[in-house]
Amino acid sequence: MNRIIKRVGPQEIEEFTALIKLFEEVFELPPLPLPATSYLQQLLLQESFHVFVAMEGSEVIGGLTAFTLPQYHSTAPLLYVYDLAVAPSRQRQGIGRELMATAIAYAREKGMEEVFVQAEEEDLHALDFYRATDAQGQRIFHFTYPLLSTKGT
């Protein structure tokens, strides 16, 4: 079966929700309730939000989400890859590389200056993946300030 990589549009909620469920599986997250379809469609309508999926037939087997970030030192924006996942049974088959190559080509076509992605230090699988690509690694620290409880309160 042929594999395609495509950008998801606002009318393709099924592909987007399948990708969200795939993220939960791959990242070993507890199932969380999805926002309303109208919210997800509005998110997909935003020019600064991007979703790419790898599909075989009607099945989402991988994907990534990314955000365009404007800069104040340059008029060329950056593309921040927020999440990238491939179904466990489909890993190590070049799908992640194809997704990144598609996002990079999209960013280049849109005149962006750089594509960047973060990986946690303990996520050796992700670190190995990005090191095997043409990416340049940097050691950074990431700090968060949680504002909303996600424990159902």
UniProtKB/TrEMBL annotation:
Domain of life: Bacteria
Keyword annotations from UniProtKB, A to Z: Acyltransferase, Transferase
Signal peptide (residue range): none
Keyword set includes Repressor: no
Annotated Pfam families: Acetyltransf_1
Record Gene3D superfamilies: 3.40.630.30
CDD domains according to UniProt: NAT_SF
InterPro entries, per database record: Acyl_CoA_acyltransferase (IPR016181), Bact_Acetyltransf (IPR050832), GNAT_dom (IPR000182)
Domain N-acetyltransferase: residue ranges: 11-153
MF terms in GO: acyltransferase activity, transferring groups other than amino-acyl groups
Annotated protein name in UniProt: Putative acetyltransferase
